[in-house]
DNA sequence: GTGAAAGCGCTAACAC
DNA sequence: GTGTTAGCGCTTTCAC
């Protein structure tokens, strides 16, 4: 292994000068010629910094922990991590990712591991948007919740704006002229099912359409669920359906086709989640509202880093007592228009 | 921050003894009482090892790099990483994951980053099984290729056994009594399309069924591809189809349904990949052959670690010249039986 | 058995 | 401007 010492010796300078030259430290004035020489020698010798030693000396690791409960199981987690990684990288940090698979013991161990590694913060994420009780150790370090939140607001959190998303989905249908719109929601209460319902109601209200509880149908949030509610949907007399997610829509598509019915001629459909593998490839392709996964990752890390910077600044204020609980940052869900909506009316400017 | 020094002082022992007690070092004889006292003090003080300092002193980082070209984009990558992480963890190592998104510059930077971090090895993985040219830096360290390989065999590689998988898929159909079996393959040549075709032919040959090139249909390996070849499939007179992947099968399902045809009554179908979100939820659910993603990850890391151990042992042998190229390790693809196959004959013992 | 002390490779005061 | 040097927190050899 080539050390800085070797480089310094070979370049005929002191180890300090070598360090400055290699790091291109502007605070110290070294002639450009020396800088170049050192760097050339370093290159030739195949010198590579030892980040361990550097971190130890500087008291800064440039590491950020990322705890996820399902990179493996969920098609969503990957995008979140990608966003987080990109944002971290942009700030000269690197992500230490651990997938706990939802296991609490694993979570604790992951935290320890990260803290031992001197991470500068931990992003704790869940693949499904819900309330969580993060491991105790999490408040020992600058941390942030991604796609989840703690009810007490002890941590900053970044989550998708389910209400806005539900409203956007419904608006898509309203704008196409539909007035009798069914909402096939998930049975289980969750930020998603509650928020999207709220959004659905908000959209209807804004459009002056009365809310009819009979149009809200509930089922398991997957293909089988959607497949099973087809009769209810048809019986409701709706001309359009907003499905809780793309999987439900996929099941509904299957059931409709078996009855010889066509989307969007017989029924317009909007999904949620934008699971590309489904939504982009159904026949016809499904209009839907996407989850801002990548952005959640980016904003999570950004929030973490900003808070880290503040912490450095605030000398007086003692964090412990800061009574004001964090309000989750809500991220907009993007609309994705495809072919599953039939236009009943000429598009009006809304 | 509580250091080992603090613990030692508080426990009234030397820093060395404290280190031994904390690490429960068996090579040195310290009375159990002292060990316990030190550990108790450490606990009380909230002491936590500094992995940076430890690594620096021991010259061992316990870090393994994992480069992937698509955690985000692919539903496959997640499982591979999960397997890799589990196996690493089991050996007291932690994974440093970087997603390069297929960008060569990013790959190089990721390598540098990892080498600076003193990783003990790098697993380089691709989400699609294919030949790769890994970044130059990769041979500076113990490394392994996962779900990909280099043509020169310079690195150990772990890949799915496409031939066995293709054979398994075809066997499923043969065992159900089908003799006229179509293979809807991908157009592009790849280890997957070539291997699965080979497996298809092997299975037919073993069953004494003549290979008929007319039964091999080619299309894009996605839903649109499968949707588009329905006429060809029907015209071929096949009673069963082996699709290159689940997405193709999904497209085919849609096209069949639009023609009022049913799976498996009118046509039996087998997919490949076992993309659960599709295969488990089609109507009927799709029989398929899974990719051994988790195992690829596990075996990748295991291979890495084993090679690392060997390296330590082999003093005499100079690795550089070892002419024998690595042969990829082929991992068995598991069969997943669901409802999309019609039994033509009573099951015979095979 | 236990402690003193010499590093691990690098950074950053502080001299000169 | 450049070099000297004291750490960063921990491990481990070598005395006692």
TrEMBL record, chains A, B:
Stated name of the protein: Transcriptional regulator, LacI family
CDD domains in UniProt: HTH_LacI, PBP1_sucrose_transcription_regulator
GO molecular function, a single term: transcription cis-regulatory region binding
Keywords from the UniProt entry: DNA-binding, Repressor, Transcription, Transcription regulation
Keyword Transcription: yes
Organism in which the protein naturally occurs: Bifidobacterium [indicum] DSM 20214 = LMG 11587
PANTHER family: HTH-TYPE TRANSCRIPTIONAL REPRESSOR PURR-RELATED, LACI-RELATED TRANSCRIPTIONAL REPRESSOR
Gene3D superfamilies reported for this sequence: 3.40.50.2300, lambda repressor-like DNA-binding domains
Taxon lineage: Bacteria, Bacillati, Actinomycetota, Actinomycetes, Bifidobacteriales
InterPro entries: HTH_LacI (IPR000843), LacI/GalR-like_sensor (IPR046335), Lambda_DNA-bd_dom_sf (IPR010982), Peripla_BP_I (IPR028082)
UniProt superkingdom: Bacteria
Domain HTH lacI-type: 2-58
One of the Pfam families matching this protein, by short name: LacI
């Amino acid at each position: 292994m080539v050390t800085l010492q070797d480089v310094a010796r070979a370049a005929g300078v002191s180890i300090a000068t070598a360090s400055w030259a290699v790091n291109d430290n502007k605070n110290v004035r070294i002639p450009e010629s020396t800088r170049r020489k050192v760097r050339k020698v370093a290159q030739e010798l195949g010198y590579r910094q030892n980040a361990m030693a550097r971190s130890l000396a500087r008291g800064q690791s440039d590491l950020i922990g990322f705890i996820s409960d399902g990179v493996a199981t969920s098609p969503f987690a990957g995008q979140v991590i990608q966003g987080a990684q990109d944002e971290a990288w942009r700030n000269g940090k690197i992500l230490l990712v651990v997938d706990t698979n939802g296991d609490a013991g694993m979570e604790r161990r992951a935290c320890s591991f990260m803290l031992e590694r001197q991470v500068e913060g931990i992003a704790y994420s869940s693949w499904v948007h819900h309330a969580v009780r993060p491991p105790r150790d999490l408040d020992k370090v600058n941390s942030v919740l991604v796609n989840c939140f703690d009810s007490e607001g002890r941590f900053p959190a970044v989550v998708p704006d389910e209400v806005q998303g539900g409203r956007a989905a419904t608006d898509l249908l309203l704008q196409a002229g539909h007035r009798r719109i069914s909402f096939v929601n998930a049975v289980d209460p969750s930020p998603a099912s509650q928020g999207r319902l709220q959004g659905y109601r908000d959209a209807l209200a804004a459009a002056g359409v009365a809310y009819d509880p009979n149009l809200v149908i509930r089922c398991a949030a997957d293909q089988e669920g959607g497949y099973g509610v087809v009769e209810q949907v048809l019986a409701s007399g709706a001309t359009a359906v907003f499905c809780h997610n793309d999987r439900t829509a996929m099941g509904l598509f299957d059931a409709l086709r078996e009855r010889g019915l066509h989307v969007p001629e017989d029924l317009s459909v909007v999904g949620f989640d934008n699971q590309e593998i489904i939504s982009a490839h159904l026949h016809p392709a499904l209009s839907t509202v996407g989850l801002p996964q990548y952005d959640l990752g980016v904003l999570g890390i950004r929030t973490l880093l900003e808070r880290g910077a503040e912490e450095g600044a605030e000398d007086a204020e003692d964090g412990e007592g800061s009574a004001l609980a964090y309000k989750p940052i809500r991220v907009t869900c993007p609309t994705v228009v495809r072919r599953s909506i039939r236009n009943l009316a000429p598009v009006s400017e809304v």
